[in-house]
Fold this sequence. Notes:
Elements: H1 2-17, H2 19-38, H3 50-80, H4 83-87, H5 94-122, H6 134-159, H7 162-179, H8 191-197, H9 201-213, H10 221-241
Amino acid sequence: MAAYRAQAAMELRLTVRRGENLLVTLGIPVVLLIFLVGVPVVPAPAGVRLVDELVPGILALALLSTGLVSLAIATAFERSQGVLKRLAGSPLPTSGLLAAKTTAVVATVVVQVAIITAVGLALGWQPRGGLGGGLAAALPWLILGTVAHAAVGLLLAGTLRAEATLAVANALYLLCLLVGGVVVPLTDLPSVVAVPASVLPPALMADLLRGALVPGGTIDLGQGLALLAWTAVLAIAAVRGFRVEEA
């Protein structure tokens, strides 16, 4: 436990030191939210204001950018440079290293959620949805979504070369943005895309956040169990598949 705490503190310091990357991670979702509210290229369902529909999707996109893309790329290059190989000689097991990295991601996500919430409220967002609604109802899905996508990022970083991780992580992010049900709801996509996407973690997370935060929304507990199952499977796969050095 002491080794995990020390590594988690180090990961947090490294996150803060990556100032340019942190600025992009925190800034892009906010810029995108402001742009999409001002230029309504994404339609809102009947009876729902655009900002109320957009904020949950932007929250989901922020989790993806931090848990999947930023974590995957940073970890992959640490691996290629031999940093993780040196850590393998410490008392910290692989599971502890991945937990420490995920802890730093969660801390970043807390800041992202706070900033997006503040900007959303300034734009007139009213977070009300199913099961009482509001951020309290969204918290379980924020946590599960963060851990699930951090596991995907770590799985990529621990199995692919750094250059491949860079390409795959960015490609997955773009797919989630365009056809993953994150910013554009699955109901607005063709069924040939929407049906397979609906059972994947990004769409599950985004739908659950909309259910918790969009006025009149409902939370599908079946989707919640599916996201929980994905989180467990992906976390186990990340721990078992992660290698500290490239082949």
